[in-house]
Amino acid sequence: MTTLRPAPPAPTLGAHTFVSMLARDVRVLRRELFTFLSRTLMQPLFFVFVFAYVMPRIGGGDGAGFGRVAGVSFATVLVPGMLSTTMFISGLMAVTVPLMMELSYNNEIEDRLLAPVPVWALGLAKITSGAVQALVGAIVVFPVVYFVHDSAEPPQIDLGNWPLLLVVVISSSVLSAGLGLLMGTMLDIRKSNVLFSLVTVPLTMLGCVYYPWAALQNTQWLQIAVLLNPLVYSSEGLRASLTSSMPHMPTWAFLLVLIGGTAGVVWLALRSFTRKVQH
C-alpha cells in the first residue's frame, strides 16, 4: 500500500529568513573589515593626495584644467567622482567575486539553495549585501576626499540638496550590486581578470570620475559614447547633488537612467541568477 506524503511547503520569502541570509554576509564583512577598508581607501586616498594636494603645491595646476574654467578647484571635481567610483567598485566586487567562487568547483551555492526561500530571493540578498557595502565604502571614503587637499583649493561641497543625494546614492549602490550579480553569473572565475582589464578600468576612466560630462562638449562623439557607461550617471548625479555650482547632466536624464536602469538591471540579474543556479 502506497503511503501518500504531503507535498513540501512552497518556498516563501519571510523577513526573518531574508535578514538571516544577510547576517551571514555581515559576519564575513566584519571578519574581513581591514581588507575591505584598505581595498576601499587606497586608490581614492593616493589619487586625491597626489592631484588635490601635491600637484597644486608643486605648481602643477589643479590637475585637470577644468577647475580654472569653472572657477572651482580640482578637489571639487574629485569628491563626487571618487564617491561614485568607490560605490561602483565596492558594490560590483562585493557580489561578483564571491558569486563566481560559489559557482565554481566547490559549488558552495548549493548550501544557500537549501534555504526555504525562492531562488530569486538568494540573488536579491546578494544585491542587498553588495549595495550595503557600496554605501559603507562611500561613507568611509567621503572624509578622505573632503579633507585631503591643498588648503588654498578646498572642495566646494553643498549638502543642502540631500533628498536628491539620497536617491542618487541608494540607486547607484543597488545598480552596482545588480551589475555585480549579473556579471557573476556570466563570467567564469578562471576569466575573472577580464573583469578588471575589460570592465572596471574602462568604466572608471570614461565614467566622468575625473572630469564632468559637460567638459566633453568639445569632443562630442566621446560625450555621446560615454552615455553607455552606467558610472557616468552616478558621477553626474553626485555632482548635481553635492556640487550644484558646476555644470552637470540634466537631473531628469541621470535620474531616469539610475532609477529605470537599476530596476532593469536587477530584474535581468535575478533572472540570470535563477537560470544559472537551476541549470
Description:
With 279 residues, this protein is an all-alpha fold. The chain has one domain (32-278). It has helices spanning 15-31, 33-57, 66-70, 74-102, 109-113, 119-147, 162-186, 193-205, 220-225, 230-242, 251-278. Helix 4 runs antiparallel to helix 6 (119-147) and helix 6 packs across helix 11. The longest helix has 29 residues, at 74-102.
Cα distance spanning the termini: 35 Å
**Uncertain regions: pLDDT < 50 for 5+ in a row?**
1-9, 63-69
Instruction: Report the portion of residues in β strands.
Output: under 5%
| Alpha-carbon Rg, integer | 21 Å
Shape descriptor? globular
Query: Percent of residues in helical segments?
Result: 55-70%
What's the rounded overall pLDDT mean? 79
Strand pairing plus helix content: what structural class? mainly alpha
Total domain modules? 1
DSSP summary: helix tally: 11
- Structure summary, number of beta strands: 0
Largest sheet: none
**H/E element string?**
HHHHHHHHHHH
Question: Topology, please?
Answer:
Elements: H1 15-31, H2 33-57, H3 66-70, H4 74-102, H5 109-113, H6 119-147, H7 162-186, H8 193-205, H9 220-225, H10 230-242, H11 251-278
Helix pairs in contact: 1-6, 2-4, 2-6, 4-6, 4-7, 4-10, 6-7, 6-11, 7-10, 7-11, 10-11
Features:
mainly alpha; 279 residues
In short:
The chain is mainly alpha-helical and 279 residues long.
